[in-house]
Design goal:
Distance between the termini: 46 Å
Pfam family, one: SRF-TF
Radius of gyration: 23 Å
Shape: extended
InterPro entries: TF_MADSbox (IPR002100), TF_MADSbox_sf (IPR036879)
CATH architecture of the largest domain: 3-Layer(aba) Sandwich
Helix content: 55-70%
CATH superfamily of the largest domain: Transcription factor, MADS-box
Organism: Solanum tuberosum
GO molecular function, one term: RNA polymerase II cis-regulatory region sequence-specific DNA binding
Strand order of the largest sheet: 1-2
CATH class of the largest domain: Alpha Beta
Strand content: 5-15%
Protein name: Mads box protein
Order of helices and strands: HEEHH
Low-confidence stretches: none
Number of domains: 2
Length: 129
Amino acid sequence: MEEKNTLGHQKIPMAKIENEDDLYSSFSKHRETLYKKASDMIGKYEIDVGIITFSPSNNPFSFFHPTIDVVVDRFFSLYAQESENSRLNIANTRIRIKEKQVELDNLEIIKETLTNETTDETSMEEMWE
C-alpha cells in the first residue's frame, strides 16, 4: 500500500484573517454552513432555533425557526408556561413548514426526473446521428 505524501489534517492556529476578501469569503461560507447545520437539527429534532450573526462589515444576518416571535418569546420567558394559543400557533407553523418541505422534495424529484429524461433523449439523438 502506498503512503500518502500529504500532511493530513493539521491544526490551524486561531488568528484574525487580515485580507478583507478572504475575511468576507470565509464569513459567507461559515454562515451558510451554520444555517445548514441548524436546518438539519430542526429536521431531526423539531427544535426552535434563533441565530443572529454580523458580517465583517456589520451587516446583520438572521435565521429563526419556526418564527422570530416564538424563539424570542421562549428566550425571554424561560420559566413561564406557554399559552394554549401560542402552542397552537407553533404547531400550525411546524405543520406548514413540513408541508412545504414535502412539496420542495417532490419538486426536486420531478426536476431530477426531467433532467434524466432530457439527458436520455439527447444521448439517443446523438446515437442516431
